[in-house]
Write a sequence for this structure.
């Protein structure tokens, strides 16, 4: 069986259905001689005669009858499998597994996945929350939502939105330690370091004239997640840089205070990262949905 050309099974089914070599050749878009050649090679590969041919008609042998029944089923299964793959290509289905960090997974990604699942009922969504950098291929993750700045990798990425970095502290901390007036003052303040960053204690601010001011902060506490660092800052333990989507409500309600007006940090990005050059339709559709939702926020 390893030597049988399976393409000839479909030719054999077409020949029997058409009833003649001429009609089969027309349906297959080839010549009568080529159909006859494929049949002869199939019979040689199988070691049995499938058809009895005369100048006026052809008929199946006993072996040909049994083999034809199996071939019809095999060809039908193959056509169904191809059609199903086509559906996967054209319409989202299956499992969509998304990884996201703790600070934006529940608040940003989960509502988007819920909307996606309602819109595409043939998709089952799976959200993986955690601040570590996941291996998309090894852990079978369809895409990861990453915040900040992307590291060089073989993965593909689509930018979904941007965010501002905010230097903040709690009013209680500022009452005890005062507010920094220039970036250099931060060296004397207690710093909450976010260890998932590539440089959690060194920051460069840009003033209104475009001049850069770098400072090395002194950490009194560290956390490997944005929400934990946020909790430290709210408790008045120190100063830190947090994303605007995490602190905007605190700034509006006075629970946190924005520091160093007139000095800015580089904006960060929200990215959808996925393996492979051509993502499946379910991944493309979810990226489009996220872009729409983040564009409205």
């Amino acid at each position: 069986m390893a030597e049988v050309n399976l393409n000839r099974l479909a030719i054999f089914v077409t020949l029997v259905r058409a009833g003649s070599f001429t009609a089969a050749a027309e349906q297959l878009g080839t010549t009568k001689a080529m159909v006859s050649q494929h049949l002869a090679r199939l019979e040689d590969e199988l070691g049995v005669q499938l058809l009895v041919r005369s100048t006026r008609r052809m008929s199946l042998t006993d072996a040909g009858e049994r083999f034809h029944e199996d071939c019809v089923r095999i060809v039908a299964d193959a056509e169904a499998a191809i059609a199903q793959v086509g559906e996967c290509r054209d319409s989202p289905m299956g499992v969509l597994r998304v990884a996201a960090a703790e600070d934006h997974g529940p608040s940003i990604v989960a509502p988007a996945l819920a909307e996606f699942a309602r819109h595409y009922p043939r998709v089952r969504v799976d959200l993986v929350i955690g601040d570590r950098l996941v291996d998309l291929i090894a852990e079978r993750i369809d895409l990861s939502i990453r915040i900040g700045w992307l590291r060089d990798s073989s993965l593909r990425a689509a930018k979904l939105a941007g965010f501002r970095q905010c230097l903040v502290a709690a009013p209680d901390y500022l009452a005890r330690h005062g507010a920094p007036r220039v970036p250099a003052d931060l060296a004397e303040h207690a710093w909450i370091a976010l260890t998932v960053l590539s440089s959690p204690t060194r920051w460069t601010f840009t003033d209104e004239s475009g001049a850069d001011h770098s400072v090395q902060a002194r950490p009194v506490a560290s956390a490997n997640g944005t929400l934990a660092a946020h909790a430290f800052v709210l408790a008045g333990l120190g100063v830190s840089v947090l994303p605007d989507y995490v602190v905007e409500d605190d700034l509006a309600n006075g629970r946190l205070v924005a520091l160093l007006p007139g000095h800015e940090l580089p904006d960060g990005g929200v990215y959808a990262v996925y393996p492979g050059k051509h993502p499946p339709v379910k991944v493309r559709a979810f990226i489009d949905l996220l872009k729409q939702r983040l564009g409205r926020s």
